[in-house]
Amino acid sequence: MTRTVIEVKNLKKDFEVSQSFMNKMMRKPKLYVKAVDNISFKIKEKESFALVGESGCGKTTVGKILMRLINVTSGEVYVKGKNISKLNDPYKLKVYRRMTQMIYQDPFSSLDPRFKVYDILEEPLLIHNIGSSIAERRALIEEALENVRLTPPDEFIDRYPHMLSGGQRQRVAIARCLILNPDVIVADEPVSMLDVSVRAELLNLMKDLIEKQDLTYLYITHDVSTTRFFAKHIGVMYLGDIVEQGPVGNVLDNPLHPYTQALLTAIPEPEPERLDRIKEIPIRGDIPAGTNIPEGCRFHPRCPYAKRVCIEEVPDYKIPAERGHIVRCHFAGEIEYKFRVKVISDEGEVVKEEVIDAGEESDTAS
Amino acid sequence: MDDNTILKVNDLSTHYFTSRGAVKALDDASFELKGGQSMGIAGESGCGKSTLAFSLMRMVQPPGKIVKGSIDIRGLEVTDLSEKEARKKLRWQKISMVFQGAMDIMTPVYTVGYQMMEPLKYLKNIKGDEAKDICFKYLDMVNIDYELFYRYPHELSGGQKQRIVIATALLLDPDVVILDEPTTALDVVVEARIMNDLKLLKKKLNNSMIFITHDLSILAEISDKLAVMYAGYIVELGDAIEIYKNPKHPYTRKLIGAIPRLHVDVDRLEYIPGAPPELTNPPKGCRFHPRCDQAFDRCSQDEPGFHEVDGVKVMCHLYDRGA
Ligand SMILES: Nc1ncnc2c1ncn2[C@@H]1O[C@H](COP(=O)(O)OP(=O)(O)O)[C@@H](O)[C@H]1O
Ligand SMILES: Nc1ncnc2c1ncn2[C@@H]1O[C@H](COP(=O)(O)OP(=O)(O)O)[C@@H](O)[C@H]1O
Ligand code: SF4
Ligand SMILES: [Mg+2]
Ligand SMILES: [Mg+2]
Fold first, then answer.
1. For B15-43, b where at least 16 C-beta lie within 10 A, e where not — what string?
2. Ligand 3 pocket, A283 CB below 6 A?
3. Which residue among A41, A248, B24, B255 is least enclosed by CB atoms within 10 Å?
4. How many other C-beta atoms are found inside a 10 Å radius of the C-beta of residue B267?
5. Helix (H) or strand (E) holding B198
6. d(CA B323, nearest CA chain A) in Å
7. ipTM over 0.95
8. What are phi and psi of A325, to 5 degrees?
9. Nearest-CA neighbor of B127 among B148, B113, B147?
10. Closest CA to A191 of A219, A215, A216
11. Least CB–CB distance from B265: residue in A228, A267, A269
């Protein structure tokens, strides 16, 4: 049986918003952003869990909490059975930091430009007292470079970051994580700044490392398309909450929450013949501020299906029969995955409207 | 030239003369665009997309220089213009551009309206209510409330700013509008809405549009024609639908193959091994040959010319029937 490596339970994180001096003088009540608002999920050993959603929905905050870089407001985070959310003891923290590593989005700023690849990879070894001699450390560094396929290592070991391409820098960042032999990697938009081919190459590599190095990933991204390949489970975040989660194919082919449906409808796919068709995105207005989360269902002001109950009551998670994943919506399982398409003439007039059953479209795709 | 041809680019080359040598960022680009037509330009970063755009605008930054070729916009030879003429006659009026990251460089101290009216005032001497009317007409087209005309950039969302930048590029009704990565910084829902509006705009207006992005999925939504660039060359050029459905150049095939798909399960993602070459010293023969899985002897020796296959131009030896 596979073990659960990460378990997040009822996690909340509020950030106090800094107010203007005037507001402070006038004793205006403090304002909080509910960046993460009561979320729960589990990640099993050697699995990758994707957290997706638009910018500001709280993904990075979850990652930082897992890295123990910021304190939680409430809730628990268990890693290998230990609650790390209140971990403060410097020694234990150091041990924990060795076990969980983070890859950041920007390979251009996450590596110190003054250091050579060798120094970048030696630093974590020195911090954690790994390798008693230079020769031993060098061997570990070469091994890490081989693991991320920067081969032969000799060719890369003396380079500075500016002598590497974006993809190569991100490999160095991955090697810096691997060298400590971690159990968990939090990858926060690790490939978002890279070109499509480099992105594909790196995701292949990161996936291979799951088996090779016994890794468990929290994969944070706004690019939902990459999750199908890379992740096993997915959680869709909206305004600090996970509104839908389950096996990745299940959620992407059969999204049940109106927000997930809108998000997936908006993702462009490389299919031409769309020039004369306008796909309506089934969502209203803009994302509200995190300081002002709507009552009831937090999605209701933007939801095309909202009824009175949505304004009045927070929906519970439901698992609609035979769908196999959980959704926070009063009408989960009742709302079909459909969108409206307008066919436009060469003059830009709407000549026809049709409703596309997207659930079926995806079944027949490929 | 066909009556409705608006833009005709011929053998255009632009190089940057750096201390490391000449960066051959754009070589021998040739294409035509008709009124109302849109062309997508795709390719990995550094392949010369922006250099092509800046060349058309006559805004290549030093040490860059157009070294060869012609750019004809409805009979106006762009490469012959002096900088002063380019400012007075070309930019905004004949050709305009939404720059990469433009929404972040809107000046914070002026209102949206002030910034929109500037080109009208300086280039056409249109002021006051007349200028405002023109601005409102284009704000309408990009679905922006008139009220935002009186606001400052920091009061707007990213999507709103980008729509305003697009409206501003259209104000003087230029023959050609270039959009360089116009949605790259935006969230996908906002991006999809802007793309929908651009599709409608394209139908309603008769400008030619050049749409640049590294994201081939987005280009599929808006391009009549497609130009795929690799290492400074346009390596495949033609009808967008044909190229998506039946890509011919080995590079195009790989590029399309590398796009992660939402509804398709795969064990491996396709990718192109290696990296694009240094443009100071591009490989001999076909610039793609070191990364190409179909390369044969000739590819490392001779530079391939264009071959026409199914109406699409492909720069690749595989299609040289004569050899
Ligand atoms: N240190 C902070 N102080 C105040 N607000 C913050 C801080 N970090 C994040 N936030 C806010 O919390 C919300 C979630 O942010 P983040 O986790 O970075 O989202 P994402 O990674 O999904 O883009 C946003 O509204 C953001 O502005
Ligand atoms: N001002 C410049 N000086 C020197 N080289 C440049 C300059 N601008 C661009 N280049 C080089 O020209 C090539 C093409 O760049 P660019 O046109 O910006 O590509 P893209 O827009 O496709 O990413 C790249 O190799 C880039 O490094
Ligand atoms: S609960 Fe209501 S408002 Fe929320 S997503 Fe479901 S239908 Fe829409
Ligand atoms: Mg983030
Ligand atoms: Mg560019």
1. bbeeeeebbbbbbbbebbbbbbbbbbbbb
2. no
3. A41
4. 7
5. helix B188-204
6. 32
7. no
8. -150, 165
9. B113
10. A219
11. A228
For the segment A30-59, the average pLDDT, to the nearest whole number, is 95
Q: Which residue of B has its CA nearest to A198?
A: B271
| CA dist., res. B113 & res. B127, Å (int) | 12
* Residues on chain A touching B260 (C-beta within 8 angstroms): 199-200, 203, 223, 225-226, 228-229
Q: What is the pLDDT of residues A161-204, one digit of tens each?
A: 999 988 899 999 999 999 999 999 999 999 988 899 999 999 99
Check if the beta carbon of residue A325 is closer than 8 Å to that of residue A233.
no
Which token pair is B185? 């910084």
- Between the CA of residue B11 and those of B27, B71, B304, what are the distances in Å? 7, 9, 15
Q: Which of residues 210-239 of A touch B (CB under 8 A)?
A: 222-226, 228-229
User: Helix (H, G, I), strand (E, B), or coil: what is residue A69?
Assistant: coil
From the CB of B51, is ligand 2 less than 6 Å away? yes
Instruction: Report chain B residues whose CB lies below 8 A from the CB of A198.
Output: 44, 271, 275
For residues B69 and B77, is the Cβ–Cβ distance under 8 A?
no
Query: Which tens digits make up the pLDDT trace of A129-148?
Result: 999 899 999 999 999 999 99
**pTM for this model (two decimals):** 0.94
DSSP A41: E
Integer Cα distance of A308 and A304 in angstroms: 12
Tokens encoding B126: 């249109």
**Is B241 in CB contact (< 8 Å) with chain A?**
yes
**Closest C-alpha among B26, B23, B66 to residue B232:** B26
- Listed as ranges, residues in chain B with pLDDT below 50 are 1
CA dihedral A196, A200, A205, A207 (to 10 degrees): 130
Question: Whole-angstrom Cα distance, residue A194 to residue A192?
Answer: 6
Q: How far is CA B117 from the centre of its chain?
A: 25
How far, in Å, is the centroid of ligand 5 from the Cα of B165?
Answer: 17
Distance B46 CA to ligand 2 centre (A): 5
